[in-house]
Design brief:
about 65% helix, two-stranded antiparallel ribbon, globular, mainly alpha
Length: about 300
């Protein structure tokens, strides 16, 4: 591998996993376990979360999450995203890939870790009418919001840039509802239509707003403190995330779609990234190693 490609690969892996080889300690835990996990090879979840469109989906999920003032207050008051943006990103990726590729016990432990942190996140926020409202990251409404925008982002981006999903969109939403249940999300949607309807129900209540906190977060997401070697790629990914949003949510956020062909350009970028990073993530490789060991053990 040419030296420049190796350097870019290391920088990207460090950005998204916290490790230049893409194998932090939690990835090595995925190699161990007593079952194939909640999903397994051939599942819709492995197809979506193992694909390169996840690079765009993570940004899109953060954009959507910011529209709920309770979720935005939790990020603003409790998260160190400005001081350590990559640390927060790596923590989210750890949960996503552990639940996706780990065995069932590991997925439960990781979800309990995240839930334990969420129970401490609480405070107040100002709603659209100016009234102070209490919030807790453990509130059923907030947990449902975060789950649906996450699911919508990863599904939507994969439908634009990914390969066909085994079983289709409904299969992915149904499978990933398990992750919602692990975090005690109330009645997570199990079909693509239910997912869309749940998002629309939040918009219909008028709870979603884009205030100064949201605008501050958007400015940060547009130009985070990344290494200069990956800034150009990130700027395209950000533009693609904005372009992939449903128009009503893009309008709520006050964002405009780029006049450039960012959807096509991002497809090219993601194919190049797959060449640079390899055909499978280290998490998927670890899971396949675990499953192969289980199948070879009498």
């Amino acid at each position: 591998m040419p030296r420049l490609t190796r350097r870019i690969r290391a920088r990207v892996l460090e950005t998204f996993s916290g490790d230049v080889d893409g194998t932090p300690p939690w990835v090595r835990q995925i190699e161990r376990g007593s079952d194939i996990g909640f999903f397994g090879p051939g599942s819709a979840t492995w197809a979506v979360h193992g694909g390169m469109p996840t690079l765009v989906a993570g940004v899109r999920a953060l954009l959507m999450q910011a529209l709920h003032p309770g979720a935005m207050a939790g990020v603003h008051d409790w998260s160190r995203y400005k001081q350590d943006p990559l640390g927060r990103l790596a923590g989210t990726i750890q949960w996503l890939l552990t639940v996706t590729f780990g065995d069932e016990a590991l997925a439960r432990r990781e979800s309990q870790r995240v839930a334990g942190y969420h129970r401490r996140v609480r405070g107040t926020y100002q709603d659209s009418s100016g009234v102070q409202q209490p919030y807790s990251a453990d509130d059923p409404e907030l947990k449902l919001w975060v789950h649906v925008v996450f699911t919508d982002a990863f599904l939507g981006c994969h439908l634009i840039w990914g390969d066909p999903i085994p079983g289709g969109a409904d299969q992915y939403v149904s499978e990933w509802s398990v992750a919602g249940e692990l975090l005690q999300v109330p009645t997570p949607p199990t079909t693509a239509q239910q997912l869309s309807d749940t998002l629309d129900s939040f918009a219909a209540t008028g709870v979603l707003i884009a205030d100064e906190r949201v605008r501050e977060t958007l400015r940060f997401l547009k130009r985070p403190p990344l290494h200069r070697s990956i800034r150009p790629a990130y700027r395209l990914i950000y533009a693609a995330a904005v372009a992939s949003l449903e128009p009503q949510y893009r309008d709520m956020l006050g964002l405009k779609r780029s006049p450039f062909p960012v959807i096509w350009l991002t497809g090219v970028l993601l194919r190049l990234m797959r060449v640079v990073l390899g055909p499978a993530s280290s998490s998927e490789a670890a899971a396949r190693k675990r499953i192969a060991h289980l199948e070879s053990t009498p």
